[in-house]
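Record type: monomer structure entry
Structure origin: computed from sequence
Chain ID: A
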Amino acid sequence: MGRPRLHDEATREALLGAAEALVEAGGPGALSVRAAADTIGTSTRAVYSIFGSKEGLLSALAQRSFELLRDELARLPVTDDPASDLVTAGVQVFRPMAIKHPSMFALAFLRAAPDLELDEQVQDAARQGLNMLRDRVRQMADADLLGGRDIDGATVQFNAMCQGLATTELRNPTMLGPDPRRAWQAAFETLLSGFRAPVAMEGRRD
């Protein structure tokens, strides 16, 4: 039998939860190896063993945000209405991740720790999530709902709207009115309605 791991997955999850709470309360500067360890009653050795450093812990939080998006996108059913599916992805996947985990969203998408280098694991998780979103946009193209637009370009625009809406709701939620969720839905529906217009028609005024 192999030797039991000194610090198991439960410890890793507990440290991530502690780190998220610390960053949420005081920003990335509030996180330290000692603070994370003390929060869950473990040793600093556990943090170093699992994450390597404070930076490794911050990077793991950013990675978690991309993994949440990837995993929730994978769970969404594919229907015969690709536009509705894409709206659902924004409202029911991206929004909850950002609003429920604002510190992780800030680390991953707003570079709240600008000097933090996101390692290959983080970048790989980000690519996986973006590729899954791209697949949803491709279904729009297959249904002739992109007006001849480039799939990659449309994916970037949809992703940018997700990030913009999340940032707005987190920083000034009143700008989205009394029902932010409905505001997200309306914004996506407007964007996708615009996608349907043929590219050659853009800019024309009757």
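Annotation 1: Residues 202-206 have pLDDT under 50 and may be disordered.
Annotation 2: The chain has two domains: 1-52, 61-198.
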